[in-house]
Specification:
Elements lengths: L11 E5 L3 H13 L3 E5 L2 H11 L3 E7 L8 H11 L4 E6 L14 E4 L4 H11 L7 H5 L2
Parallel strand pairs: 1-2, 1-3, 3-4, 4-5
Helix pairs in contact: 2-3
Length: 139
C-alpha cells in the first residue's frame, strides 16, 4: 500500500505532564506552533505509547516530576536511546537538571513558561527540517 508511505507534512509532538491543566496548556502551545499532538499523563503511559506512534513523532515535550516509575529524565533517556530522531524538551518548575540527568541532545525549559518562550526555544533548538511551518515563518 504505497499511500501509507506518504508522510504527513504536519509533525507530531508527544506532550507528557501529570497536571491536566499544564498538559492542556502545553498541547495548545505545541498546536499553535504547528504540531499535532499526542498526550500522556505520565512517563509510563508515554513509554507504552511510543512503540505504536514514535514513527510519526518529531518532538517529546515532558515534565520531569510525574507519578509512576518513569520521570521526565528517565523518559528522555529512553527516547534518546530508542527513538533517536525524536527531539526532546524537558520542563520543570522544581528541578534543574544536573550533569547526566538529560541525554546530550535534550534541552530544558523552566516553568512557568508561555507560548512565546516555548516557540522561541523550539526555533532555537529544533533542526530546520523538524520545525513546523508556523515556527519557520514566525519572526
Amino acid at each position: 500500500c504505497s499511500a501509507r508511505m506518504k508522510t504527513s507534512t504536519v509533525p507530531y509532538a508527544l506532550a507528557v505532564d501529570d497536571d491536566p491543566f499544564i498538559l492542556m496548556d502545553v498541547t495548545a502551545i505545541l498546536e499553535d506552533a504547528g504540531f499535532r499532538t499526542y498526550e500522556a499523563d505520565n512517563g509510563d503511559a508515554a513509554i507504552a505509547m511510543l512503540p505504536e506512534y514514535a514513527h510519526t513523532i518529531t518532538l517529546l515535550f515532558s515534565d520531569v516530576d510525574m507519578p509512576g516509575d518513569t520521570n521526565g529524565f528517565a523518559l528522555a533517556h529512553h527516547v534518546a536511546e530508542n527513538y533517536p530522531w525524536i527531539e526532546i524538551v524537558i520542563g520543570s518548575g522544581h528541578l534543574q537538571p544536573k550533569e547526566g540527568d538529560l541525554p546530550e541532545k535534550a534541552t530544558f525549559v523552566s516553568k512557568p513558561f508561555n507560548a512565546q518562550m516555548i516557540h522561541g526555544h523550539l526555533r532555537e533548538t529544533l533542526p530546520d527540517g523538524k520545525l513546523p511551518e508556523p515556527l519557520k515563518n514566525a519572526v
